[in-house]
Amino acid sequence: MYKVKAEIPGVIKDDIHVSIEGSRVSISAEVKKETEEQKGERVIRSERSYGMASRSFSLADEVDQGKVQAKYADGVLELTLPKKPGSSRKDISIS
Question: Is 68 exposed, middle or buried (CB count within 10 Å of its CB: 0-12, 13-18, 19+)?
Fold first, then answer.
């Protein structure tokens, strides 16, 4: 079983997407940031920025997609990725 923790602060869980294909895991998130500077009740400056952040990686074994669990709390995404039954690693000797 694999456990993956990814820090994704300032993002709501609905903007996070996880996809798994075999042993490849992809995590992407839509990042939104809004800042506003005020002087009294008057707005001096207002900025909005949007973007995407993504990361993909491969594991040594295939993942059992039906048993994957994902939790997001306090800016940290935690994935529990069980190995697919029957998938094993074989070392090859070189002659």
Answer: middle
Q: Which long-range contacts (CB under 8 A, 24 or more apart) does 12-17 make?
A: 13/72, 16/72, 16/77
Q: Which residues pair with 73 in a beta bridge?
A: 76
pLDDT digits (tens, 9 = 90+) for 34-82: 888 888 888 888 888 888 989 999 998 888 888 999 999 999 999 999 9
pTM of the model: 0.71
CATH class, domain 2-81, is: mainly beta
